[in-house]
Amino acid sequence: MSKNVLVLAESKDGELRNVSFEVIAAGKKIAGEGSVKALLVGENVASFSEQLIQQGADEVLVAEHSDLKTYTTDAYKQVLLQVIESESPDALLIPHTSSGKDLAPRLAAKLSSGLVSDVVDIEEVGEEVIFTRPIYSGKAFEKKSVSSGLVFATVRPNNIAALEVDSSRSGETKEVSVDLKDLRTVIKDIVKKTSGKVDLAEAKVIVAGGRGVKSADGFKPLEELADILGGAVGASRGACDAEYCDYSLQIGQTGKVVTPELYIAVGISGAIQHLAGMSNSKVIVAINKDEEAPIFDVADYGLVGDLFDILPILTEEFKKVKAGA
Amino acid sequence: MNIFVVMKRTFDTEEKVEIKDGRVDEEGAEFVINPYDEYAIEEAIVLKEANDGEVTVVTVGDEEAEKELRTALAMGADKAVLLDTEDLDDEVDHYTISEMLAAYFKNQEFDIILGGNVAVDDGAGQVAPRLAELLDINQLTTITKLDIDGTKATVERDVEGDVEVVETELPLLVTCQQGLNEPRYPSLPGIMKAKKKPLETLDLDDLDLDEDELEAKTKTVDRFLPPEKQAGKKLDGEPAEQVEELIKLLRTEAKVI
């Protein structure tokens, strides 16, 4: 049983995203005797090759072009189609990120292929690759397979563990020439709002605020705590609707679904639609002054009290922990 | 301007999900227009008001979806189309749905197609980009702002929290993200008017499609609920005591710090 697997690596702000290593690990699970090739797409990305090999890729393909600096549907689609044509992989795994979500269905339509999106687990049962994915934002799960042809899936960040770095590994890096034409989207500007911040989807720690935070200013202590923990700030729909923060931070069935190692819910009551977006986090801490709040039903640890009293103390204590005290 | 919206009928997000005989139990559940599709409908109506034109809402489903189509008409859409799945097998997937939509759109003149960024039930977000590919038109996903001037579209996209400003030409497919607009509620006169607006149902014959061509490319082998989360410990004492206890538990019990 062997499969040749192609995975798409993704970089952001001059670094490989962790999900790139996770798709390699996912690829390894189904490759058997076959190989896992990682594809790097961008402007100056060849230097990432070694890292991908150390994380388990058997070979790295590099597609560089000035028009690939920022993701656009047309350009990336053309690259992927050209590489699929030349490599004829048995399986293709793409990160379930902003660009992966945009790209994968389009490729699937072009290839007349099945696609399983937002996969959190992969197993091989006999000849078949079975993918597990959340439905209803994690209220339930389903197991799916692609009936025939290319085994094609997008992999959710933060769920399939990357392999250990093995610096003794070696592998070939191959440049692929790309021919891009008829690019229909012109990028005029990118307004960075997340510079220096940890991406919610990939964050190991999330500190999320709800209506209880009471104002945009009220989010400051949450940001401080998130910074200390190297985590990201999220929010409930209530907090976003009340304009305490941007909708891009919203966690829930409408919004982002997250699975960090540690989720700290601050002033969030725990509406069903919010719980759907975070209840599969590994450890949940809830801070709320209403001890009847439904968030406590899913929390591993509950702190009942005024968040504005608790947060500063919590932040100080975490500072001590991080300082090794 | 010919404006189309592709929409889906979904479970209300406040519904609990139960699995019965390997399927999601729909008995007694409330259904709504997928919340992301509401942004698409709202934006379509705003576009119509600014540019003159017609808004057609399209869905793939069974006759149950007529209710949600009527709601879209009550919001201000002009026409509704139901692509009926009655003749199909139980298992349909994104391939099936997008092929049906593409067959419909191939006979339409359209300037822009709007959809939700994702449906809150299945959560895959496949159908809209698949449709754009089948129609060979450009797509911009997760948009938070849309300006159309003649055939030029200037769009802001939410890219994991950053804002990307892009330009492209119509015809175009966009998927709508939170923050794009505030969907209106249907007004009472709107609801009255909606009853008289055209709602057309098309079956596979009408779309010149054959059941065999639409067979799903994926199959579902199981559906299950995650293990129920047990309520944990509520910590006692003054804030400082609770925090101290928490840090200890996170270290020794949960081992996350």
Q: Give the CATH topology of the largest domain in chain A.
A: Rossmann fold
**Helical stretch count of chain A?**
9
Greatest contact pair? A-B, 98 and 81 residues
Stretches of chain B where pLDDT falls below 50 for ≥5 residues? none
N-to-C terminal Cα separation of chain B, in Å?
A: 57 Å
* Element pattern of chain B in H and E: EEEEEHEHEHEHEEEEHEEEH
Gap from first CA to last CA of chain A:
51 Å
CATH C-level category of the largest domain in chain A: Alpha Beta
User: Per CATH, which architecture of the largest domain in chain A?
Assistant: 3-Layer(aba) Sandwich
Overall average residue pLDDT of chain A: 95
Describe the largest sheet of chain A: 7 strands, parallel
Identify the CATH architecture of the largest domain in chain B.
3-Layer(aba) Sandwich
How are helices and strands ordered from N to C of chain A? EEEHEHEHEHEEEEEEEEHEHEHEHEH
- CATH class type of the largest domain in chain B: Alpha Beta
Strand segment tally of chain B = 15
**How large is the share of residues in beta strands of chain A?**
25-35%
Shape of chain A: globular
Q: What percentage of residues of chain A falls in helices of 4 or more residues?
A: 25-40%
